[in-house]
Amino acid sequence: MVPARHLIAGPPPPSAPSVRTTVIASAAAVGAVATGSLTMLLPAESTAPTAVADEAPTLGALSASSVAMLRNPATPAVGSLAPVAPDGFAAADQHLAMLGKATDIAARIAAAHQEQARINSVVAQGGLDSWIAQALRILDMPQSLAPGVKKIIMAESGGNPHAINLTDSNARRGTPSQGLMQTIPSTFRHYVAPEVAGRPITDPVANITAGINYMVENYGINTVAAGGRSNSLGNYIGY
């Protein structure tokens, strides 16, 4: 009979490592720095591990907001950009509004210069358009009335500043209509613009100012813009 062999007890089987033990061991393997509840992993070196605790950043080296976030992730971040106060938006809006007004004013000035240049060109060319432009400028009325004024003139005198009507009722009374807009002497004296009051009734510009003033006062500026009065058939009616 083979003698029973005594079983020699070996070392106890290794127990499964705990999670905490594994984490600590892993951290030690790569060189970790534990700070409070936070474990900071540092890359391991090929040579023998060196102490890095003194080289790693500590909580004291971080800002207060960063420390709060590390200890409590729910802590709201404090950004580096400060919020714009409501007054800042109001100031920006006011600045933009001022820029818009400045742009609008500049555009109006430019348009006025262009219109003035156009009028000067018309005046320089002479003739009927020039006289109308000068008269409207003297009266400080819009140049957009020029087509209507020209239509009235062509119907009244055919554009002849020396035209005199010797057949109408005014002529029979001894006060014939004269000039571009065929005004009688008394009407001319009453309505002529003061700047040209010393000129004769047949002066083109002076006559136009008197005729326009008379029509605006008695029939309105829209009648001037429309080129005078007209009947139901659209035919011109003298004033």
Largest sheet: 2 strands, antiparallel
Q: Strand-residue fraction?
A: 5-15%
Q: Give the integer mean of the pLDDT values.
A: 78
Indicate the CATH class of the largest domain. Answer: Mainly Alpha
Shape designation: elongated
Contiguous uncertain segments of 5+ residues = 1-9, 21-44, 50-54
Give the SSE string. Answer: HEEHHHHHHHHEE
Distance between the termini: 157 Å
CATH architecture of the largest domain: Orthogonal Bundle
Count every beta strand, where a strand is a DSSP E run of 2 or more residues.
Answer: 4
Structure commentary:
The protein has 239 residues and is mainly alpha-helical. It has three domains: 53 residues, no CATH class; 36 residues; 112 residues, Orthogonal Bundle (Lysozyme). The chain has nine helices and four strands, in the order H-E-E-H-H-H-H-H-H-H-H-E-E. The strands form two sheets. It has a two-stranded antiparallel sheet with strand order 1-2. A hairpin with a 5-residue loop joins strand 3 and strand 4. Helix 3 crosses helix 4 and helix 7 packs across helix 8. It is elongated and about 110 Å long. It starts with 18 loop residues before the first helix and ends with a strand. The N terminus is likely disordered.
What's a quick, concise take on this entry?
This protein is mostly helical and 239 residues long. It has 9 helices and 4 strands.
Annotation keywords:
single chain; Lysozyme; 9 helices; mainly alpha; disordered N terminus; 3 domains; 239 residues
SSE arrangement:
Layout: H1 19-30, E1 32-35, E2 38-41, H2 64-71, H3 86-125, H4 128-139, H5 146-156, H6 169-172, H7 185-191, H8 204-219, H9 221-225, E3 229-230, E4 236-237
Antiparallel strand pairs: 1-2, 3-4
Helix pairs in contact: 3-4, 4-8, 7-8
